[in-house]
Amino acid sequence: MFSKDNLPHAPLPLPDRFDWPDEEMLARVTAFFELMTKRHSVRDFSRRPVPRAVIERAVATAGRAPSGANHQPWFFAAISDSGLKARIRAEAEAEEERFYEGGAGDEWLKALEPLGTDAAKPHLEDAPWLIVIFAQRWGEWDDGTRFKNYYVPESVGIATGFLIAALHQAGLSCLTHTPNPMKFLNATLGRPASEKPVMILAVGHPADNATVPAVAKMKKPLEDILTVFDGS
Where does the secretion signal sit in this chain (predicted)? Predict the structure, then answer.
């Protein structure tokens, strides 16, 4: 973090270092790849409770993400209260109905067809937890004056990736949900105007009858997402 006071650069010896042989590096990254291939977005959640401590540790993991100027421009609101989840669902579905009734263009709706989505979002109540992710567009000092945050979308996106990976590591499923607009979440959750809600993560155990769209298993092969310039 940083302070309104001048903070000098103070380099510290690298506190954590890993010096694994090449074979172990490959084995570790392959094991993580195999774990992440088992990550699936689901819309059907069990009502099985998830301990608060698990959610808190996953969010703490997200808070370890790198960020522009180390400003850490994110905030997470974790909700298990059934009444509040119902309110968020009602407000989100109102926005979704406008989206599906003409707010989205034909091309966008066509792209969503293979996913089988519509304006109904029961997962926002069924999932034991909702995590709302806010991007802090600017910060404020104690006296109310503002300071600028840097690379906010990139920083929040990286932190969200950390969060999703941590939840998957815990054996949980989640669904990214982005009703547009989402300004209602500021008022609902008491967050300031400086913060922009960017995503709702529904989090929990998948229901016994959970399904995933077949198209969701169609991932681009490595050669379509990577070019290597190795000098050879």
Answer: none
